Amino acid sequence: MTDQPKVAYQGQPGAYSHLACVAAAPDHEPMPCYSFEDMLSAVQDGTADLAMVPVENSVAGRVADIHHLLPESGLFIIGEHFQRVNHMLLGLKGATLAGLKEVHAHPQGLAQCRKLIQQYGLKRMQHADNAGAARDVAEWNDPSIAAIASSLAAEVYGLEILADSVEDFEHNTTRFLVMSRAPKLPPVTTDKVVTTIVFRVRSVPAALYKALGGFATNGINLTKLESYLVGGSFEAAQFYVDAEGHPDERNMALALEELKFFCPPDAVRILGTYPMSPFRASAPRPEGD
């Protein structure tokens, strides 16, 4: 144990979340956790100071379940980080591509390497995380079994890189949210910020259209809008929005006021306002929201 602040992540040492911790929070000690729930709990109870939370991948899309956990966690988003995902096919030393029969990885890792898996006719085996798959392959000592994981995982578990850069697309990148127990509101003078909001609308015709209209009329760009079912029914949906702007700026304040008008009481929550990542600010984007 050390006095160094800790950043919790889901997965085993060598996971891409581990790499994200090193890149985005170099002054924090990375702390591996078995599940997303364990990762968030570590921050809730003070065992860790930050959580590195993967929310979406440029190839495989949204990370399953995480959007259900964030609003209920009581934590706040204080930053974002985009981590390049460079997948390696790892096996025992001396193993060959021709001798492989199955490959182990997180479902996202398997989804991001479909072409290679199909090319070699490998059986897909799901794991809780990629680095854990690499650890298990090392322990099983079977040359017919491989894992998809990072080069760091190869070093940690003593595996050989049988093929590098095996992801289907070179732009493969995962977006992470950095979360803490307390909000960290940047100054209004900060150049570019993102505000993440979750909300539910009233059950009236065109409620979502009208609720989002305030962002359009006030010139607020929405970079993300997703919905997911809540309450165990097919009728109640919660919406997740990333908006460019600070809630203390007049145009954002007016947009939020109009949003709340079309939502039930206490149905609008700001999960955090944080500086926009330089990666996102410099990346080209299509016209419109």
TrEMBL record:
Recorded GO MF terms = prephenate dehydratase activity
Gene Ontology biological process terms from the UniProt entry = L-phenylalanine biosynthetic process
One cellular-component annotation, GO = cytoplasm
Catalysed conversion reaction: prephenate + H(+) = 3-phenylpyruvate + CO2 + H2O
What keywords is this UniProt entry annotated with?
A: Amino-acid biosynthesis, Aromatic amino acid biosynthesis, Lyase, Phenylalanine biosynthesis
Q: Which PROSITE patterns match?
A: ACT (PS51671), PREPHENATE_DEHYDR_1 (PS00857), PREPHENATE_DEHYDR_3 (PS51171)
User: Which residue ranges does the record assign to the Prephenate dehydratase domain?
Assistant: 6-181
Q: What is this protein called?
A: prephenate dehydratase
Q: Which organism is it from?
A: Thalassobaculum litoreum DSM 18839
